[in-house]
Write a structure and sequence with these properties.
93 residues, globular, seven-stranded antiparallel beta sheet, 57% strand, single chain
Length: 93
């Protein structure tokens, strides 16, 4: 079984419409107690998985879940906006 280390990072904002969006203003953990809303990322050490969440007042408002092919190209994007029906985009290798 492969050991996969997860990394979580927090940001002040994001921009862009391409996958994944560009994250802006990385925050230190100590800055988190001053914020009620923020985007965050969770990624694997191998770089084949990326999850982005926009959280406001403790609730996830928007979640992007990306999987990549071994060559680094986007394989699948799943976007959940709270509507209950995620948008799924699959891309062949």
């Amino acid at each position: 079984m492969m050991n996969t280390e997860l990394t979580t990072r927090f940001f002040t904002s994001y921009r862009g419409i391409k996958f994944p969006p560009k994250l802006l203003g990385e925050l230190e953990i100590g800055d988190m107690r001053k914020r009620s809303a923020f985007p965050a990322t969770i990624s694997t050490s191998q770089g084949n998985c990326y999850v982005g969440e926009k959280t406001a007042y403790g609730e996830v408002e928007l979640r992007h879940d990306y999987r990549h092919h071994p060559n680094g190209q986007l394989a699948r994007a799943e976007i959940a906006d709270g509507s209950g029906v995620p948008k799924i985009i699959d891309s062949p290798a």
